[in-house]
Amino acid sequence: MEYLVWDVDPILISLGGLNVHWYGFLFAMGFIVGLKIMEAIFKAEDKNIDDIDKGLIYVMIGTVVGARLGHCLFYDPAYYLSHPLEILMIHKGGLASHGGAMGVLLGLYLFAKAQKYSYLWLLDRIVIPTALVGAFIRIGNLFNSEIIGDETTLPWAIIFARVDMLPRHPTQLYEALAYVVIFAILFTLYKKQATQLKIGVMFGLYMVLTFGARFMIEFVKTQQASYTLDLALNTGQLLSIPFIILGLYMMFVYKKSSSTVKE
Question: Where are the domains of the chain?
Answer without folding.
Answer: 4-8+19-252
